[in-house]
Amino acid sequence: MNIIGPEFPIEQGLIIPDYNYVYDMELPKDVILEPHDEEIQSFSGMSIDELKTALPRNKFKPDSASVLIDFSIRHNFISPENEPDFSDITIRLHRKLPFRT
Q1: Where are the domains of the chain?
Q2: Predicted confidence (pLDDT) per residue in 21-53, tens digit
């Protein structure tokens, strides 16, 4: 679920009930990803440390950030041992919406 922010002033604060189906896919190192639509600006490889720095700085769209956080949890880069808000994060990633979607 995304909440529309200041970049869309007429719709600000509205809820966009999204479902993101996430799959991990390992690619060969020689594959170069290129965007082919308006939704993706660019692709870049990042280390976990770079990701941890970029996420709090809002360097990703909200739906992209939630996928990266989900990946980090599933691969144990974010865990209850190293993230004090772990329970809140996992609840927010997998919440049930109070209306039909």
Answers
A1: 19-93
A2: 888 988 898 998 888 888 788 888 899 999 989
